[in-house]
Write a structure and sequence with these properties.
Number of strands: 2
Strand order of the largest sheet: 1-2
CATH architecture: Up-down Bundle
Largest sheet: 2 strands, antiparallel
Order of helices and strands: EEHHHH
Helix content: over 70%
Radius of gyration: 24 Å
CATH topology: 3 helical TM bundles of succinate and fumarate reductases
């Protein structure tokens, strides 16, 4: 019986003749690394950031619509699930910005050796977690102080 995967190795030259070409490595060939995860996470963070911006626009729309609409929006954002969504959005925004800066550095031709990429990946995660924690502490700290005033 002929191996059906063999057909995947067939390609065409520019003159139309058939050639045997190499297969692209599959995920089973690669060891899963932090840099692979961070690449996937950057794309997911971009999508999550866009979704969060859409929710932010809805929140601003509720604020502009009047006190009743804004009260409903505050009920959602004051809910633990709403606060978790806010925390996730902040995490996605911060990570996407930090990863974007990392990509700009790569675009300049710097920090592109394997060891540097691996070290910078750990730094990216640490900076993201630190900045996110600081922002969330500030956001929720202001929220707590405002609740005490009322």
């Amino acid at each position: 019986m002929q191996d059906v995967r063999e057909a995947l190795y067939v390609g065409h030259k520019s003159d139309g003749t058939l050639i045997r070409r190499p297969m692209s490595p599959h995920l089973q060939v690669y060891r899963f690394r932090l840099s692979m995860f961070l690449s996937i996470a950057n794309r997911a963070a971009g999508v999550a950031s866009a979704g969060g911006v859409a929710l932010g626009v809805l929140w601003l729309s509720a604020a502009a619509s009047g006190p009743q609409s804004f009260a409903k929006a505050r009920k959602v954002t004051g809910n633990p699930l709403g606060q978790a969504a806010l925390a996730g959005w902040v995490l996605a925004l911060v990570y996407h910005v930090i990863a974007g800066i990392r990509h700009l550095i790569w675009d300049s031709g710097r920090r592109f050796e394997k060891q540097q990429i691996n070290k910078d990946g750990v730094k990216t995660v640490a900076i993201t977690l630190g900045v996110t924690a600081a922002l969330l502490a500030a956001i929720f700290g202001v929220t707590c102080c405002r609740k005490k005033e009322h």
